[in-house]
Protein 1
Amino acid sequence: MRIIIVGCGRMGAGLALTLTQRGHDVTVIDRDPTAFATLGERFSGRIITGHGFDREVLRCAGITRADALAAVTSSDETNVVTARVARQFFRVPRVVARLYDPRKAEIYRRLGVLTISTTEWGVHRITELLSYSWFEPIVSLGSSVDIVDVEAPPALVGRSLASLTVPGEVHPVAISRGGRCFLPTQETRLQAGDLLHIAVLATSTERLKGLLGV
């Protein structure tokens, strides 16, 4: 994919490096030429100095052929203006803007701009970590699903994974056993020392506690 990233702060640089490592063609725009130093020598894409909402700068970045654009500067207003120009004027198929103020998110969604609020996401994530401290959440998929790690309780040793499955709410996705990780079936029997990797809805953690006997 051909992707444009506007803003070369920590998030922008991290996105650029990750996307290039995955084989995408990435161009980074920032008004401060010194910001590109964050990319380091590993970055193999292009860099352009200028304002991300400037149409000529965007054309120079190849926006007429771009598959996606991410606006991740430190300014909500800059991100949204850039995203709207990319989406409505240049018809970029996939456009995302970062917002610091979650109260603005719904407004911009109505304007056709996809947004991610790092503040809102952080609040949800910290709430989950504080609330479910007996788990070890290893991945949060949005604000509604966690992948959690939990050691198989002694009372469940010898039972099948079917006893830990609630369709649409709780689903064991992998087991770490004896130094290797594998994908189990519903008939897989639990053994002492198994580390379970379980996908669970945030609203179903109490149900998972019950299944585990916590």
Note: Helices lie at 10-21, 55-60, 76-89, 105-110, 118-131, 205-212.
Protein 2
Amino acid sequence: MDELLSKSYYRILVSKEIDDQDKCNLIAKMKYAYEDQDALIIDYLKNGCVDISSYAVMLQEKDQSCRNSDIQNKRINLWKDYYSTFAVSQDIFITTQKIFLEEYIDDLSPRDVYEAVKFLREVDEAVDLSLLLTKSIDKFVDKVIEIDFDNYMRFGWPTELLEMIKNKISVKKNPYSIKDLLNLLAGSNSWNSRYIPYLRKFTESDYYNWIVEESNVDVVDLLCEFVKRFHNLEGDDYVIIEQLRRALNRIKGRSNLDRLRVEYLVYQKQI
């Protein structure tokens, strides 16, 4: 069981050692392939009980993955009514598609919804499901900060849909303040780099105003720790360091005291 959990069974399958042959035959007979939930099963077999809470995240992800797979299978079967038979009438086809979209709108990708809505409108101009498409786009945008549009285009997402998403993202409000983000990223011994892109939404003036006006937290300590952890940001994220540097250079010009504060940061953390 330990070998299965560590995925070393791949080594067994290609091994020429005689001692591995029985194991290889057993694995082949079971048609075994590693899944994350195997850790839970092996834990139970070895110990007779399981702390299910320690597997909660993994199980939730697996449940969602299975749900997504089931929904996609249903979607594929519905579209068979269009491309594999003449026995399904237009009214029935439209009705079943609408019911499916309404039931699973929260689970489908905007691309799936866009294609269905556009096709149904082509079938019958009176069918307007634009509100469902808007709901799907809004839900997608709520989960992202920005997207790589070129990458989505390579995967066949329509340009019109991507433009709609782009417009939504451009007016999306930042759910975090600079103070919130610096606390999340530099205010403790643990941090999650997924918050970094949110900082790109702030301008030099935003950073300047926050630094000179904030009095409820240790601004100097947060800035020092942030730069210590993230001074090597690259690509699009490097603009964060650039904006912060410009803001601090503006602050240097306010007074000798501010100049000493900033130069201390520059000297110590090389911002």
Note: The CA atoms of residues 37 and 59 lie 7 Å apart.
Protein 3
Amino acid sequence: MLTSMRKGIGSWSVKIFLGLLVASFAVWGIGDVFRNVGGNNVAEVGEIEITPTEFLYSFRSQIKRFEANTGVQLDNERAISLGFDRSVLSQLIGRAALDQFAIDGGLETSDEQLRRTIRQSPAFQDQLGNFDRFLFENVLQQNGMSESRYLSMLKSDLSRGALLDSVAINLEPPHELAAQLYRYRLEARTAELIFIPAGWGADIVREPDAAALETFHQDNAARFSAPEYRDISFLNLRPEQLIDRVSADEQELRDYYDQRIDEFSSLETREIQQIILPDTELAGRAKDRLASGENFAAIALELAELEGDDISLGRLNRNDPAIEKFSEDLFNAAQGDIVGPLESDFGWHIFRIASITPEKIRSYTEVKKSIEKDLLLERASEELYRLTTEVEDELGGGASLSEAAAAAVEHYEPDR
């Protein structure tokens, strides 16, 4: 399906449009092309909405990547002063612009391709190279991401990648660039060598006089000079150093838990099997045979030539885009029920509810230690900013770094 869609958007008119779009980003920046439109969203690009939740997730992810690469801890205010907010917004708007263009061009990732991409991802495979559902859910949980959000993001990434691939295919480079690369790769040189025997000229070497030595020393001063060294004092302040100076009572921890309840919740999921048939008559016969107790896989093989993974949709939640049209019917059925026939653009669907995993919410008691640490670190970061300000004031008053640090700690009174 993606191949046929690429052909539809592979014309020069589309490529020129995308080229102008990318050029506008490079010359004027994202901020001059799109503007925040107000309302409850951070920004909107066509029909694509960038929500505060999406922006905050990307903002925190960029901070975590920075901390992992540099070992430097950042609070939100410091990250904003470094331009992380503008960088994240620019990236989100750029992706949204391409997503909107993909939607307008009718480029959409199929459910089969989405499922295949996930199963082939090394991040979700066990040591034998097989897809591991537990590993998949564990990776998403470690990254604070729900399954539906990951599938939605992956679907957009695949559509956006197909769009960019269509632009890159058969793109002719500028003539001058091609010529420079051609000359560089095919350049050849002829070298002539002169061999001088090791003992040649030994009879003309004389002991240098003082003037010659002085001149040589001046001409090669760098060889006889040691680099400049300096003693440096620094003050290393981290939120962890102030964590014992802040506190949070039980009610504050419970409120913090309620604010982050989505992170500790997993929706009900169902393992669903599917048969797709071309017409309602054949689908009706299949439904009657299933109702009489015949095997679902056998019916799928006989009537639709589907077997194994072809009939399995995997474990899905209510918000999964793969079953968006049939969500209510499928999640109102009991385990083992046959649902359908239900019609879509692909034909008539008959579903079987193979198994059900109920919704699970990690209790306050289970996550109390974790959220307490997070809340205390947030408050310690705020205290660190106050303490840093006091150190800077002392330095501005002429104190040395050690004096400024001692004075700031002595007069420091944390907010409780």
Note: The longest strand covers residues 347-357.
